[in-house]
Specification:
By secondary structure, the chain is an alpha+beta fold. It is built from nine helices and ten strands. The strands form two sheets. The protein has a seven-stranded antiparallel sheet, with helices on both faces. The two termini are about 35 Å apart. The relative contact order is 0.12.
Length: about 325
């Protein structure tokens, strides 16, 4: 697998740059998993900033590597996030991502296709190693240069993060870190243990919808508190928050709950029709919240309604992405 990873990353490097850039040696510190499931080397100038710093989602852990320039510039970048995901990941997921040139399945990339574009994506012949490069459309913010390697228990995601426009400067180091990854024998990918791609994707989107539903509930509680307090709100604004806002949120929560059940069921044409209907209703609820937000002048209440609208728009987006998986 490591030979394949080196080949894939070398191709990505050559595609991205006008000339060949040799990989640097494996000097510096070492990041190792407590269970010896993997280890990787850091090039000169890099240090382990945090080890197993927190949850990565799907039962995983996150470690953070930092370059000396991150501290020198005061911006905190470039860094490398090493995510250990413990949910078995089928090869078909990486196949889908490699074909997803327009970032249509945003939940798999964790970035918005409106704000980001995929500059390069390369998948090895075994469909076990994916390399990709995400850049902001407006050239502002952060870029992500990453490698995903399937393992027996899930996958390793090694994500180089740098200010937009600076990735070529650190590309040698990113590739050196990627290619130094050594997955222990007991942790190496086992095709039979990865499970079904469709089932994995359904779980992914069910979790994402549930996350947005729960976040909306918290936001709605905050908005209700503002409405009850009435601080700085006109009678008309209080009326919007107590009535139209509550109806829109209730509709969104109900339709999201039904959408979650429908995605879980995933039964042919009947499922497709139901998902289309529920996604349209979520769009209606999101648009209603957008309208309410325009009629609220009090800053805190307006912000809370706006955040609620963002959550519901995200539910609708997830519904459309899940729908594509059913077609």
């Amino acid at each position: 697998m490591m030979r394949t990873l080196i080949a894939v990353l070398t191709c990505l490097l050559l595609t991205a740059c006008s000339g060949s850039m040799p990989l640097v040696g494996n000097g510096g510190d070492t990041l190792s998993a407590p269970d010896e499931s993997f280890n990787l080397k850091l090039p000169a100038g890099w240090t382990v900033k945090q080890k197993a710093a927190g949850e990565a989602g799907e039962g995983g852990r996150v470690s953070v590597l930092a370059h000396k320039d991150a501290a020198a510039t005061g911006k905190g970048y470039p860094t490398v996030m090493v995510r250990e995901i413990s949910e078995p990941t089928p090869q078909g997921v990486l196949d889908l991502m490699a074909r997803d040139k327009g970032l249509e399945y945003s939940e798999l990339w964790n970035v918005s296709p409106e704000k980001y574009q995929l500059k390069h994506a390369l998948l090895d012949k075994s469909s076990q190693v994916l390399s990709y490069w995400l850049v902001p459309r407006d050239g502002q913010g952060l870029e992500y240069y990453a490698a995903v390697v399937l393992t027996r228990s899930g996958r390793m995601e090694i994500i180089g993060v740098a200010q937009a426009g600076t990735v070529p400067t650190y590309m040698k180091d990113f590739n050196a870190i990627f290619t130094s990854l050594n997955v222990g024998e007991k942790a190496r990918f086992n095709q039979g243990a990865a499970g079904d791609t469709t089932a994995y994707l359904k779980r992914t989107y069910v979790r994402a919808l549930a996350r947005e539903r729960d976040a909306l509930a918290r936001q709605a509680a905050e908005t209700a508190a503002w409405a009850k307090a009435g601080t700085g709100l006109s009678a008309q604004e209080q009326g919007f928050l107590a009535n139209a806002y509550v109806r829109a949120v209730s509709s969104a929560q109900q339709n999201c709950a039904e959408l979650i059940k429908t995605v879980e069921a995933h039964r042919g044409s009947e499922t497709v029709a139901a998902m289309q209907r529920l996604t349209e209703r979520l769009d209606e609820a999101a648009n209603a919240l957008d309208t309410i937000q325009l009629n609220i002048r009090e800053v805190q209440a307006r912000s809370s309604v706006d955040k609620s609208a963002v959550r519901v728009h995200r539910m609708a987006t997830l519904g459309r992405e899940a729908l594509k998986l059913s077609l």
